[in-house]
User: Fold this.
Amino acid sequence: MFDWKQDPHRRYNPLSREWVLVSPHRTQRPWQGQVEKTAPPAQPEYDPECYLCPGNSRAGGVRNPNYTTTFVFDNDFAALKPATPLDRFDRDGLLIAETEPGICRVLCFSPKHNLTIANMEVADLRTVVDAWVAQYQELAANPLINYVQIFENRGAMMGASNPHPHCQIWSNHSIPNQIAKEQAAQLAWREEHGACLLCQYLALEESARDRIVEENESWLTLVPFWAVWPFETMVIAKRHVPSIDYLTGAERTGLADILKRTTARYDRLFDVSFPYSMGFHQRPTDGGTHEEWHLHLHFDPPLLRSATVRKFLVGYEMLAMPQRDITPESAAERLRAL
Ligand code: H2U
Ligand code: ZN
Assistant:
């Protein structure tokens, strides 16, 4: 008899339309790989050396205002520039390049250097949600900008340059790869089933319940059936809305609440300020109504078995397909139990 909890199998991700290999029996194998250094010492509320703290100067000499809530500025080392002319290069369909106009910003969540989403107040996180909505709307109104990516790299392990609570916003002319994949899948699902992919998935998970981690009135956090990272989660809006600008006041507060509760669970898992990359996936701002889009966030945390042992996507995963050991159901159970 095949045992889905123990035996190797692959699972399908209907959003990316890709597969992930699941090998639960491998959790017994010995580990002799890299051991990361343990967590850094506690941070002060204000760090005179931090380029994001209020009143400090950034690289390039600009001084931050003495901000008291959130603070947004154009990235001093922006990956994209708005004054980029539209142009395309194509040689025999083999050498193809396109210019990419865009705007990159940094958004500080709080003036306090030592906070994280997990230990901020819900009321202050609601201010962050409002800032995300304002940025999304402002960038969406720019005819050059067809997609706005809001994301946070948290922790040195994820390459975050600074512990000060902040996220980045990259907005650009083309539709990025992951977004294009999810858009095509949601559109095809809508055409074939006359319903939303994530609305249907949400209903299924709400009745199964074994992958749910957190829930409130308007949001649900779950380990997706097709998760790649050991403790990967998705935070999904319960109502079918294509983007954050559609959220009601209560849903914005609900988002603040579920983000705090989700990241606090992560912190409790290995007793460390949990590193991750997280970000929104939502409707492109190219003028379409995009009814196929269902607003959600992805949390992709690297940690595997302790504060110091992380998963790498290397070898078979770089060359063939992603693979995981513990099942998404057991990951969800562990997060739920904290
Ligand atoms: P990360 O921690 O996610 O890398 O984000 C920090 C960003 O802040 C990074 O993109 C920018 C970097 O370019 N930055 C400034 O814009 N000004 C500075 O003075 C330092 C860092
Ligand atoms: Zn700081």
